[in-house]
Amino acid sequence: MLIELLVTVALGLHLMCVNVASAGPMICLWLERRDGRGDSLARETGVFLSSASLVTLVLGVAFGLVVGLLLWDDAYANVLQRFPSRIGYGLVELGFSAVLVACHAIWWKYQQRTGALLRGIRYLLLFAAGTNLLYHFPFLFVLIANVANSGDTARDVLDGEFVNMISAGPVLARVTHFILAAFAVTGVLLIGFALRLRRSGREDDAQRVAIWGGRIALAPTLLQLLVGLWVTFTLSPIAIRRLMGGDLLATALLISSLLAALWLMHKLASISFGDVSQKNLIGAICLMVAVVLLMTGVLRASQQRAPGLHPRAAARLAQPPSAASRAPQTDLTSA
């Protein structure tokens, strides 16, 4: 039970960090545009967010390693061995994105005025870093989780098969859920930056940034209602039964997460329309953290993971390979 709690918390922190690292550069594009029109507050906010994207990328990797260590066993190692080229390529892409974000953050901080050409290069750095993270990593890690839960660890996944697998409904649903969460969490981070501005006595600036953050977070949070239904419909019948009353913990976590999400939407809507009281801002931040941790708990409870992989995966790996598992497979979209 303690290990499961640690995994849930570490995974939730990992997700929040990679959310900011992924969506931060994309939101900085908008702030860069405002900066180009002479909005100094947009520049200050963008420099903060660009730096935060780099820091959260590093923290996200660290929390991901913690989760991996807590879950590591022979079964999990066998699953990762199915994606050797993808994981190696992903590490290179991770370093590439970190370099792009670092270059942009330093450039934007120390060179305030740039011409159209140089600003266009900065746009390109942000766009490349953001899309690189949003495209590669959600698909890869959702697919690894699906393969682990299915227990299908027969052989390496080839490039053509990888494309077919990521286009499957369950993978697309969870990746869409992640992308929306990335923008919502990053919007709430801007609300946190507004609190920092307020503590320094800059009330008007804090109000503007808080409203920006509230509006950025509100739209994807509302869309999560529809995407959440999509994700639910792609779950296995066993997982749905657990969430719908078959497991008291899973059901309680689901209900709690939905109530917290509705409360969060109310807070974000209030902030978006100008109610930027201290209580509202702190409440939105706390509720976002609670929603992410509760939703992570829902995912863990629905999958019945007790440290390591799904029991079915471990059972399959413990058996000698059959002739069917050694034969070439052509349809892996159900993984």
Helical amount:
over 70%
Taken in chain order, the helices and strands follow as HHHHHHHHHHHHH
Specify the CATH class. Answer: Mainly Alpha
**Quaternary:** single chain
Stretches with pLDDT under 50, minimum 5 residues: 305-335
Distance between the termini: 28 Å
Offer a quick outline of the entry.
The chain has 335 residues and is mostly helical. The chain contains 13 helices and no strands.
Question: How would you describe this structure to a colleague?
Answer:
- With 335 residues, the chain is mainly α.
- Helix content is 83%, strand content 0%.
- It has a single domain, classed as Formate dehydrogenase/DMSO reductase fold, CATH 1.20.1630.
- The protein contains 13 helices and no strands.
- Helix 2 packs antiparallel against helix 4 (84-110), helix 5 crosses helix 7 and helix 7 packs antiparallel against helix 8.
- The model is unreliable at 305-335 (pLDDT under 50).
Topology:
Layout: H1 2-36, H2 40-71, H3 74-80, H4 84-110, H5 116-150, H6 159-166, H7 169-199, H8 203-233, H9 237-246, H10 248-272, H11 278-303, H12 311-318, H13 323-326
Helix pairs in contact: 1-2, 1-5, 1-7, 1-11, 2-4, 4-5, 5-7, 7-8, 7-11, 8-10, 9-10, 9-11, 10-11
Fill in the keyword field for this structure.
single chain, 335 residues, mainly alpha, Formate dehydrogenase/DMSO reductase fold, globular, disordered C terminus
